[in-house]
């Protein structure tokens, strides 16, 4: 299935030089992928995909959308790490099975793993993982153990490929703030509240004029 990517800004899912970005067609495509570009309805397409950050798909198409071929997606990326091979496909109530199948086929043919999520802030991974990351940061502040010891415990005891603190620091603490703040504003759950180190990192970036 042929796909096209319309870039309106830099994409976190497909940064410059990404193989999927380079493989997009400039010709008529069955699946159109919008990355920071204005959404345009087109009933002739098998699927239209909108790249999401921390926002809901409904912010682009409305809560009462009747578009049957419009889906959201986000390629999981830990902060500023290289994007993973996992794509979270966001399915609104109006989307047809055919649109989900078409979108899944495009991503899987490119070597991605695809999971389907409802249109909720944080989707699957962040809603599961962020409370654990935040707890690890709080334990570090409280002096429960060193970063090295907590990461080693998770790797040896739980089989993690890398420790939670290692992942957060590698991906960027300010990026971690952005995700946790979006979750906390939506759900109000204390486990999603941005931890002290993330708040400090984001405020430092703002004082230095960084986004």
Q: In which range does the helix fraction lie?
A: 40-55%
Distance between the termini: 36 Å
Q: Strand tally, please?
A: 6
Fourth-level CATH superfamily of the largest domain: NAD(P)-binding Rossmann-like Domain
CATH topology of the largest domain: Rossmann fold
| Count of separate DSSP helical elements | 8
Strand content: 5-15%
Radius of gyration: 18 Å
- Total domain modules: 2
What is the second-level CATH architecture of the largest domain?
A: 3-Layer(aba) Sandwich
CATH secondary-structure class of the largest domain: Alpha Beta
- Low-pLDDT regions: none
Order of helices and strands: EHEEHEEHEHHHHH
Overall shape: it is: elongated
* Average pLDDT reading: 95
Helix-strand makeup class: alpha/beta
| Order of strands, widest sheet | 1-2-3-4-5-6
Q: Biggest β-sheet: count, sense, barrel?
A: 6 strands, mixed
């Amino acid at each position: 299935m042929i796909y096209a990517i319309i870039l309106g800004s830099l994409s976190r899912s497909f940064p410059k030089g990404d193989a999927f970005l380079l493989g997009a067609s400039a010709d008529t495509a069955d699946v159109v992928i919008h990355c920071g570009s204005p959404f345009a309805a087109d009933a002739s397409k098998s699927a239209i995909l909108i790249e999401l950050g921390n926002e809901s798909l409904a912010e682009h198409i409305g809560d009462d959308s009747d578009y049957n071929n419009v889906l959201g997606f986000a390629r999981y990326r830990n902060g500023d790490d290289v994007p993973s091979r996992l794509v979270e496909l966001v399915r609104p109530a109006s989307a047809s099975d055919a649109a989900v199948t078409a979108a899944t086929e495009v991503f899987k043919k490119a070597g991605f793993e695809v999971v389907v999520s409802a249109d909720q802030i944080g989707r699957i991974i962040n809603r599961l993982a962020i409370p654990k990351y935040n707890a690890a940061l709080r334990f570090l502040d409280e002096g429960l153990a060193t970063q090295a010891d907590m990461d080693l415990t998770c790797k040896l005891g739980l089989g993690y490929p890398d420790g939670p603190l290692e992942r957060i620091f590698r991906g960027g603490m300010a990026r971690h703030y952005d995700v946790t703040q979006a979750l906390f504003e939506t759900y109000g759950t204390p486990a999603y509240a941005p931890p002290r180190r993330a708040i400090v990192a984001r405020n430092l970036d703002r004082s230095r004029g960084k986004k």
